[in-house]
């Protein structure tokens, strides 16, 4: 939706990647039938665990902030954002103070108004890269959008050729910094890059839409998606080969109460939204409220949290703005309790122990906590196992790990799923890529459909970890999900367990004594 005019490590994990994995089919097959296992059960995070109510930082999912820059000089186009600094790290500090902690994403607009019909100068490209580097330094990723028209300055008369040229200029910048990008939205066309009201109305012509989206999809770094505002735009694309990389962003989440929320049952696009959001990136934001904006589309009715959770889960949302409706709906979500019974009756994900303290007593959680913790994926370890007999004659230790996704959505970005043997100091001794595709770790069925609403099926990871001759004493088993393209700087995934240890990007699962 539009922005209102008035208010506006070098780690053990990295080292693991350097260990010769020697991956072969023999390393990733189940142990022989009849294996006697030493079992290590695990449990989820409970409210009275240490940091049990703190956000679990994981890449490319969850609540997000919003920041906007003119690419020409890193000022903001909005009067109310004049306290935003060209130093993006300082702006993130400001946003955390203003809207509260709990997000590690931000919508990031770059306005190219000054260069709409010319090349983007090197200085502006350097500005864009500077902001992305600052996000990386703070562990953030961008929901990235480029636009020309801001709804305040005169419309620019850019052409399809201008847009394609600019995508080509931007592509190397995004590729170098794709660890700090969650999704590169289609943008460019119309006010705020929302694909309405552009001077030449390119967003209404299939040939123009297909040309722009072909250039953008071809420019996407491996594993990244782009997003469009509505199904009608997607249907204009004549090359269906592009569609696998195109998700959606809903910029007016009102659960169908507002005329610009198309993501509702009964809308002609609803079947497409259900289909596409199943495995492609989905982002959203509520409208600004009247405490933030006097524009006519402002929305000052509290959006019910449990109903919102059902819609966000049904459409597999990965991220949602923490900035929009921040004086009406967000305060209500922060003070409204949800219970285990309510979540169960709504067919929403129930994380292990999430609504229970360590004594088993029921504990409510706020709606804000629940949404913060379940947007996108939420991976829990259920059990780790290793062969009770120890290392086999082949010099390998059979290992199995059961994982389950308790979030709203499956993971959307490819990652290696790696099992490791660590020494007592946490250094990798060996590592095996299980070849599992974690994007297939499906969550619970979609609550507003006739999906199976039972608990999500666990996935079993299997490996036979090489153990060097003479290895003895206390070791540990670990699970790592590193960034495949940036193992030394990209954020790894932490599992939602209080019974595992998080050490340098590795989920430490079990202690094992090796006899050498």
Automatic annotation (TrEMBL):
Signal peptide positions (record): 1-28
Compositional bias, Basic and acidic residues, is annotated for 445-454
User: Pfam families attached here?
Assistant: DUF4832, DUF4874
Q: Which UniProt keywords apply?
A: Signal
User: What positions does the domain DUF4874 occupy?
Assistant: 58-231
Q: Which residues form the DUF4832 domain?
A: 245-485
InterPro entries xref list: DUF4832, DUF4874, TAT_signal
Q: Residue ranges of region Disordered?
A: 440-460
Q: In its keyword annotation, does this UniProt entry include Nucleotide-binding?
A: no
Q: What is this protein called?
A: DUF4874 domain-containing protein
